[in-house]
Protein backbone atom coordinates (compact mmCIF):
# COMPACT_ATOMS: atom_id res chain seq x y z
CA UNK A 1 0.00 0.00 0.00
CA UNK A 2 1.28 3.49 -0.91
CA UNK A 3 0.19 6.80 0.58
CA UNK A 4 0.20 10.16 -1.26
CA UNK A 5 -0.65 13.35 0.70
CA UNK A 6 -2.14 16.40 -1.09
CA UNK A 7 -3.00 19.59 0.82
CA UNK A 8 -5.98 21.92 0.47
CA UNK A 9 -8.34 24.22 2.37
CA UNK A 10 -11.98 25.28 2.37
CA UNK A 11 -13.13 28.81 3.16
CA UNK A 12 -16.70 28.91 4.47
CA UNK A 13 -18.94 31.92 3.83
CA UNK A 14 -18.77 33.02 7.46
CA UNK A 15 -15.05 33.57 7.00
CA UNK A 16 -13.88 30.71 9.16
CA UNK A 17 -10.97 28.83 7.63
CA UNK A 18 -11.30 25.10 8.10
CA UNK A 19 -9.53 22.05 6.78
CA UNK A 20 -11.31 18.74 6.30
CA UNK A 21 -8.92 15.81 6.20
CA UNK A 22 -10.29 13.14 3.87
CA UNK A 23 -8.65 9.87 2.93
CA UNK A 24 -9.06 8.45 -0.56
CA UNK A 25 -8.98 4.66 -0.64
CA UNK A 26 -8.65 3.16 -4.12
CA UNK A 27 -9.52 -0.41 -5.03
CA UNK A 28 -9.46 -0.43 -8.84
CA UNK A 29 -12.56 -0.74 -11.00
CA UNK A 30 -13.49 0.98 -14.25
CA UNK A 31 -12.61 4.40 -12.85
CA UNK A 32 -8.93 3.36 -12.60
CA UNK A 33 -8.81 1.32 -15.82
CA UNK A 34 -6.61 1.70 -18.86
CA UNK A 35 -7.38 0.22 -22.28
CA UNK A 36 -5.32 -2.87 -23.14
CA UNK A 37 -5.45 -5.64 -25.73
CA UNK A 38 -7.49 -7.58 -23.17
CA UNK A 39 -10.00 -4.76 -22.63
CA UNK A 40 -10.19 -2.33 -19.71
CA UNK A 41 -7.85 -3.34 -16.87
CA UNK A 42 -7.56 -1.46 -13.53
CA UNK A 43 -4.02 -0.12 -13.26
CA UNK A 44 -4.12 3.60 -12.40
CA UNK A 45 -2.54 4.53 -9.02
CA UNK A 46 -4.37 6.93 -6.69
CA UNK A 47 -2.09 9.92 -7.30
CA UNK A 48 -2.89 9.70 -11.00
CA UNK A 49 -6.64 9.59 -10.26
CA UNK A 50 -6.29 12.70 -8.11
CA UNK A 51 -4.56 14.57 -10.93
CA UNK A 52 -7.86 14.44 -12.83
CA UNK A 53 -9.72 16.13 -9.96
CA UNK A 54 -7.52 19.05 -8.84
CA UNK A 55 -10.65 20.78 -7.49
CA UNK A 56 -10.69 18.60 -4.39
CA UNK A 57 -7.41 20.18 -3.25
CA UNK A 58 -9.16 23.53 -2.97
CA UNK A 59 -11.56 22.43 -0.24
CA UNK A 60 -9.95 19.53 1.61
CA UNK A 61 -6.72 17.91 2.69
CA UNK A 62 -6.38 14.58 0.88
CA UNK A 63 -4.28 11.54 1.62
CA UNK A 64 -4.52 8.66 -0.86
CA UNK A 65 -4.07 4.99 -0.08
CA UNK A 66 -4.23 2.15 -2.62
CA UNK A 67 -5.69 -0.99 -1.05
CA UNK A 68 -5.89 -3.04 -4.24
CA UNK A 69 -6.28 -2.45 -7.97
CA UNK A 70 -8.69 -5.03 -9.36
CA UNK A 71 -11.89 -5.34 -11.34
CA UNK A 72 -14.82 -5.35 -8.91
CA UNK A 73 -16.02 -8.63 -10.41
CA UNK A 74 -12.94 -10.09 -8.73
CA UNK A 75 -13.70 -8.49 -5.35
CA UNK A 76 -14.38 -11.07 -2.64
CA UNK A 77 -15.64 -10.78 0.97
CA UNK A 78 -12.05 -10.91 2.18
CA UNK A 79 -11.40 -7.69 0.23
CA UNK A 80 -14.19 -5.93 2.14
CA UNK A 81 -12.28 -6.74 5.32
CA UNK A 82 -9.16 -5.09 3.86
CA UNK A 83 -11.13 -1.90 3.20
CA UNK A 84 -12.69 -1.95 6.65
CA UNK A 85 -9.34 -2.51 8.35
CA UNK A 86 -7.75 0.34 6.41
CA UNK A 87 -10.51 2.67 7.61
CA UNK A 88 -10.13 1.39 11.17
CA UNK A 89 -6.37 1.99 11.07
CA UNK A 90 -6.84 5.60 9.91
CA UNK A 91 -10.21 6.39 11.48
CA UNK A 92 -8.99 8.80 14.14
CA UNK A 93 -6.79 10.79 11.75
CA UNK A 94 -9.42 11.75 9.16
CA UNK A 95 -12.79 13.49 8.95
CA UNK A 96 -14.12 11.25 6.17
CA UNK A 97 -13.27 8.57 3.64
CA UNK A 98 -13.87 8.27 -0.11
CA UNK A 99 -13.55 4.80 -1.63
CA UNK A 100 -13.26 4.39 -5.39
CA UNK A 101 -14.61 1.00 -6.41
CA UNK A 102 -15.81 -0.83 -9.50
CA UNK A 103 -19.54 -0.46 -10.04
CA UNK A 104 -20.41 -4.12 -10.63
CA UNK A 105 -20.13 -5.15 -6.98
CA UNK A 106 -20.06 -1.71 -5.34
CA UNK A 107 -23.55 -2.13 -3.86
CA UNK A 108 -22.39 -5.34 -2.15
CA UNK A 109 -19.32 -3.53 -0.81
CA UNK A 110 -21.44 -0.63 0.46
CA UNK A 111 -23.74 -3.03 2.29
CA UNK A 112 -20.88 -5.11 3.66
CA UNK A 113 -19.05 -2.05 4.99
CA UNK A 114 -22.30 -0.92 6.64
CA UNK A 115 -22.18 -4.07 8.76
CA UNK A 116 -18.41 -4.14 9.30
CA UNK A 117 -18.30 -0.46 10.35
CA UNK A 118 -21.28 0.46 12.52
CA UNK A 119 -22.18 3.85 14.01
CA UNK A 120 -19.35 5.79 12.33
CA UNK A 121 -19.40 9.47 13.23
CA UNK A 122 -17.72 10.26 9.90
CA UNK A 123 -18.92 9.83 6.30
CA UNK A 124 -17.60 6.82 4.42
CA UNK A 125 -18.51 7.23 0.75
CA UNK A 126 -18.15 4.72 -2.07
CA UNK A 127 -18.10 5.90 -5.67
CA UNK A 128 -16.93 4.81 -9.08
CA UNK A 129 -17.64 5.39 -12.75
CA UNK A 130 -19.13 3.83 -15.84
CA UNK A 131 -16.12 4.97 -17.91
CA UNK A 132 -12.43 5.34 -16.99
CA UNK A 133 -11.46 8.70 -15.56
CA UNK A 134 -9.03 9.45 -18.39
CA UNK A 135 -11.83 9.46 -21.00
CA UNK A 136 -13.18 12.89 -21.85
CA UNK A 137 -16.85 11.89 -21.53
CA UNK A 138 -16.37 9.91 -18.31
CA UNK A 139 -18.63 10.40 -15.32
CA UNK A 140 -15.66 9.70 -13.03
CA UNK A 141 -14.54 13.27 -12.32
CA UNK A 142 -18.04 14.35 -11.35
CA UNK A 143 -18.59 11.35 -9.08
CA UNK A 144 -15.25 11.76 -7.30
CA UNK A 145 -15.65 15.52 -6.79
CA UNK A 146 -19.21 15.02 -5.52
CA UNK A 147 -18.05 12.35 -3.07
CA UNK A 148 -15.35 14.60 -1.63
CA UNK A 149 -17.77 17.52 -1.46
CA UNK A 150 -20.31 15.40 0.40
CA UNK A 151 -17.60 14.29 2.83
CA UNK A 152 -16.55 17.89 3.39
CA UNK A 153 -20.10 19.24 3.79
CA UNK A 154 -21.94 16.40 5.55
CA UNK A 155 -22.61 16.81 9.24
CA UNK A 156 -23.41 13.17 9.81
CA UNK A 157 -21.64 9.84 9.69
CA UNK A 158 -22.48 6.59 7.94
CA UNK A 159 -21.67 4.43 4.96
CA UNK A 160 -22.97 5.90 1.71
CA UNK A 161 -22.78 5.43 -2.05
CA UNK A 162 -22.49 8.56 -4.20
CA UNK A 163 -23.25 8.39 -7.90
CA UNK A 164 -24.65 10.72 -10.57
CA UNK A 165 -25.20 13.55 -8.11
CA UNK A 166 -27.14 11.46 -5.60
CA UNK A 167 -26.14 9.99 -2.25
CA UNK A 168 -27.70 6.74 -1.06
CA UNK A 169 -27.52 4.87 2.23
CA UNK A 170 -25.03 2.05 1.71
CA UNK A 171 -27.50 -0.73 2.50
CA UNK A 172 -30.13 0.57 0.07
CA UNK A 173 -28.11 1.10 -3.11
CA UNK A 174 -28.41 -1.29 -6.03
CA UNK A 175 -27.02 -1.19 -9.55
CA UNK A 176 -29.91 -1.07 -12.01
CA UNK A 177 -28.22 -0.07 -15.29
CA UNK A 178 -25.13 -1.56 -16.89
CA UNK A 179 -24.02 1.41 -19.05
CA UNK A 180 -25.88 4.62 -18.17
CA UNK A 181 -24.46 7.22 -15.80
CA UNK A 182 -27.49 6.98 -13.49
CA UNK A 183 -26.55 3.38 -12.77
CA UNK A 184 -27.70 3.16 -9.15
CA UNK A 185 -30.98 3.54 -7.35
CA UNK A 186 -31.96 3.57 -3.70
CA UNK A 187 -34.35 0.67 -3.07
CA UNK A 188 -37.33 1.21 -0.75
CA UNK A 189 -35.66 4.23 0.83
CA UNK A 190 -35.14 7.82 -0.33
CA UNK A 191 -31.83 9.25 -1.43
CA UNK A 192 -30.23 10.99 1.54
CA UNK A 193 -28.84 13.95 -0.43
CA UNK A 194 -28.33 15.53 -3.82
CA UNK A 195 -24.89 16.99 -4.45
CA UNK A 196 -24.24 20.21 -6.34
CA UNK A 197 -20.55 21.06 -6.30
CA UNK A 198 -19.85 24.37 -4.55
CA UNK A 199 -23.44 24.56 -3.32
CA UNK A 200 -24.90 23.37 0.00
CA UNK A 201 -26.19 19.82 0.04
CA UNK A 202 -29.83 19.33 -0.86
CA UNK A 203 -30.80 17.11 2.05
CA UNK A 204 -33.73 14.76 2.10
CA UNK A 205 -32.85 12.38 4.92
CA UNK A 206 -29.74 12.81 6.99
CA UNK A 207 -29.56 11.72 10.60
CA UNK A 208 -27.75 13.54 13.34
CA UNK A 209 -24.47 12.63 14.99
CA UNK A 210 -23.92 8.98 15.89
CA UNK A 211 -25.44 8.20 19.29
CA UNK A 212 -23.13 5.23 19.88
CA UNK A 213 -19.37 4.84 19.48
CA UNK A 214 -18.11 3.43 16.21
CA UNK A 215 -17.69 -0.33 16.17
CA UNK A 216 -15.55 -2.31 13.73
CA UNK A 217 -16.08 -6.01 13.04
CA UNK A 218 -13.18 -8.10 11.75
CA UNK A 219 -14.86 -11.34 10.66
CA UNK A 220 -17.04 -12.33 7.75
CA UNK A 221 -18.35 -15.74 6.68
CA UNK A 222 -19.02 -16.08 2.94
CA UNK A 223 -20.98 -19.33 3.40
CA UNK A 224 -24.14 -17.76 1.93
CA UNK A 225 -25.85 -18.97 -1.25
CA UNK A 226 -28.36 -17.06 -3.36
CA UNK A 227 -30.81 -19.16 -5.40
CA UNK A 228 -33.12 -17.50 -7.89
CA UNK A 229 -36.22 -19.56 -8.56
CA UNK A 230 -37.49 -20.13 -12.08
CA UNK A 231 -40.45 -22.28 -13.16
CA UNK A 232 -39.26 -25.83 -13.75
CA UNK A 233 -36.31 -25.74 -11.34
CA UNK A 234 -35.88 -29.02 -9.47
CA UNK A 235 -35.90 -28.61 -5.66
CA UNK A 236 -33.18 -31.23 -5.29
CA UNK A 237 -30.73 -28.43 -6.06
CA UNK A 238 -31.16 -27.46 -2.39
CA UNK A 239 -29.67 -30.79 -1.29
CA UNK A 240 -26.44 -29.89 -3.10
CA UNK A 241 -26.45 -26.31 -1.85
CA UNK A 242 -27.14 -27.39 1.73
CA UNK A 243 -24.01 -29.55 1.75
CA UNK A 244 -21.82 -26.53 1.04
CA UNK A 245 -23.46 -23.45 2.54
CA UNK A 246 -24.70 -22.44 5.98
CA UNK A 247 -27.28 -19.87 4.88
CA UNK A 248 -29.43 -20.02 1.75
CA UNK A 249 -31.35 -17.05 0.36
CA UNK A 250 -34.15 -18.02 -2.02
CA UNK A 251 -35.28 -15.32 -4.41
CA UNK A 252 -38.89 -16.27 -4.92
CA UNK A 253 -41.62 -14.58 -6.95
CA UNK A 254 -43.71 -11.51 -6.12
CA UNK A 255 -44.35 -11.17 -2.40
CA UNK A 256 -42.48 -14.42 -1.75
CA UNK A 257 -43.33 -17.99 -0.86
CA UNK A 258 -42.08 -21.50 -1.54
CA UNK A 259 -43.64 -23.58 -4.33
CA UNK A 260 -45.24 -26.75 -2.91
CA UNK A 261 -46.62 -28.39 -6.07
CA UNK A 262 -46.21 -32.17 -5.90
CA UNK A 263 -43.90 -32.43 -8.89
CA UNK A 264 -41.50 -29.77 -7.57
CA UNK A 265 -42.00 -29.29 -3.83
CA UNK A 266 -39.50 -26.70 -2.58
CA UNK A 267 -41.23 -26.43 0.78
CA UNK A 268 -40.44 -30.07 1.55
CA UNK A 269 -36.77 -29.61 0.68
CA UNK A 270 -36.56 -26.45 2.78
CA UNK A 271 -38.03 -28.30 5.78
CA UNK A 272 -35.25 -30.84 5.43
CA UNK A 273 -32.55 -28.18 5.31
CA UNK A 274 -33.89 -26.29 8.32
CA UNK A 275 -34.02 -29.52 10.32
CA UNK A 276 -30.26 -29.80 9.68
CA UNK A 277 -29.62 -26.35 11.13
CA UNK A 278 -29.40 -24.35 7.92
CA UNK A 279 -30.53 -20.71 7.89
CA UNK A 280 -33.17 -19.98 5.23
CA UNK A 281 -34.22 -16.55 3.97
CA UNK A 282 -37.07 -16.04 1.51
CA UNK A 283 -36.67 -12.92 -0.61
CA UNK A 284 -38.30 -11.61 -3.75
CA UNK A 285 -37.02 -11.13 -7.28
CA UNK A 286 -38.91 -7.82 -7.41
CA UNK A 287 -36.62 -4.94 -6.44
CA UNK A 288 -39.20 -2.55 -5.05
CA UNK A 289 -41.72 -2.82 -2.20
CA UNK A 290 -40.31 -5.99 -0.64
CA UNK A 291 -41.61 -9.39 0.39
CA UNK A 292 -44.52 -10.42 2.63
CA UNK A 293 -45.24 -14.11 3.18
CA UNK A 294 -48.46 -13.43 5.07
CA UNK A 295 -50.59 -12.75 1.97
CA UNK A 296 -50.71 -15.84 -0.26
CA UNK A 297 -51.02 -19.53 0.50
CA UNK A 298 -47.50 -20.25 -0.80
CA UNK A 299 -46.16 -17.80 1.77
CA UNK A 300 -48.45 -18.63 4.68
CA UNK A 301 -47.72 -22.36 4.37
CA UNK A 302 -44.01 -21.57 4.44
CA UNK A 303 -43.99 -19.48 7.62
CA UNK A 304 -46.38 -21.89 9.36
CA UNK A 305 -44.26 -24.98 8.69
CA UNK A 306 -40.68 -23.70 8.65
CA UNK A 307 -38.73 -21.30 10.88
CA UNK A 308 -37.29 -18.98 8.25
CA UNK A 309 -36.44 -15.34 7.70
CA UNK A 310 -38.00 -12.87 5.28
CA UNK A 311 -36.10 -10.18 3.42
CA UNK A 312 -39.02 -7.72 3.76
CA UNK A 313 -37.87 -4.38 2.25
CA UNK A 314 -34.13 -5.16 2.32
CA UNK A 315 -32.06 -5.30 -0.84
CA UNK A 316 -30.55 -8.61 -1.88
CA UNK A 317 -27.11 -7.04 -1.47
CA UNK A 318 -27.95 -6.20 2.14
CA UNK A 319 -29.50 -9.60 2.86
CA UNK A 320 -26.49 -11.63 1.75
CA UNK A 321 -23.85 -9.37 3.32
CA UNK A 322 -25.79 -9.09 6.58
CA UNK A 323 -25.85 -12.87 6.81
CA UNK A 324 -22.10 -12.96 6.13
CA UNK A 325 -21.68 -10.55 9.05
CA UNK A 326 -24.03 -12.51 11.35
CA UNK A 327 -22.69 -16.04 10.78
CA UNK A 328 -19.31 -15.52 12.54
CA UNK A 329 -21.26 -14.36 15.60
CA UNK A 330 -23.88 -17.11 15.76
CA UNK A 331 -25.56 -19.84 13.75
CA UNK A 332 -28.41 -20.38 16.24
CA UNK A 333 -31.65 -19.49 14.43
CA UNK A 334 -33.23 -17.38 17.19
CA UNK A 335 -30.04 -15.38 17.61
CA UNK A 336 -29.61 -15.02 13.84
CA UNK A 337 -33.23 -13.89 13.61
CA UNK A 338 -32.72 -11.18 16.23
CA UNK A 339 -29.63 -9.79 14.50
CA UNK A 340 -31.22 -10.07 11.06
CA UNK A 341 -34.23 -7.97 12.06
CA UNK A 342 -32.16 -5.42 13.97
CA UNK A 343 -31.79 -2.37 11.69
CA UNK A 344 -28.27 -1.39 10.70
CA UNK A 345 -27.64 1.74 8.62
CA UNK A 346 -31.34 1.96 7.64
CA UNK A 347 -31.27 -1.48 5.98
CA UNK A 348 -34.78 -2.57 7.03
CA UNK A 349 -37.93 -0.66 7.96
CA UNK A 350 -40.69 -3.27 7.50
CA UNK A 351 -40.87 -6.31 9.79
CA UNK A 352 -42.80 -9.61 9.71
CA UNK A 353 -45.96 -9.60 11.78
CA UNK A 354 -45.24 -10.52 15.38
CA UNK A 355 -41.49 -9.94 15.14
CA UNK A 356 -39.82 -7.48 17.45
CA UNK A 357 -39.17 -3.94 16.35
CA UNK A 358 -36.38 -1.70 17.62
Condensed summary:
The chain is α/β, with parallel strands linked by helices and 358 residues long. Helices cover 25% and strands 24% of the residues. The longest helix is centred in the N-terminal third of the chain and has 14 residues, at 77-90.
Give the strand line-up of the largest sheet.
1-7-4-8-10-11-12-15-16
Q: How many helices?
A: 9
Rg is 21 Å
Instruction: Report the order of strands and helices.
Output: EEEEEEHEHEHEEHEEEEEEEEHEHEHEHH
Strand content: 15-25%
Q: Would you report the number of β strands?
A: 21
Helix content: 10-25%
Low-confidence runs of at least 5 consecutive residues? 4-13
Give a written overview of the molecule.
The protein is α/β, with parallel strands linked by helices and 358 residues long. Helix content is 25%, strand content 24%. It has nine helices and 21 strands. The strands form six sheets. It has a nine-stranded mixed β-sheet, sandwiched between helices. The radius of gyration is 21 Å and the shape is elongated. The protein starts with a strand and ends in an 18-residue tail after the last helix.
Amino acid sequence: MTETPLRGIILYQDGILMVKKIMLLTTGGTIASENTVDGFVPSMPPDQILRYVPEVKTFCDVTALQIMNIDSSNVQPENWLLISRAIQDHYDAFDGFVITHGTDTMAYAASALSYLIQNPAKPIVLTGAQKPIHQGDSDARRNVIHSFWFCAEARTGGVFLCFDGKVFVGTRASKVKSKSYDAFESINFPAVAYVHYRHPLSRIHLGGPASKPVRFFDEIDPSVFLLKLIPGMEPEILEYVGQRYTAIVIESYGLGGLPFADQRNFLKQVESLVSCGKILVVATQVKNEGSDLSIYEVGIRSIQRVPLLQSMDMTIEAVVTKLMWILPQTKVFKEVEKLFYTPVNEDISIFPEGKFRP
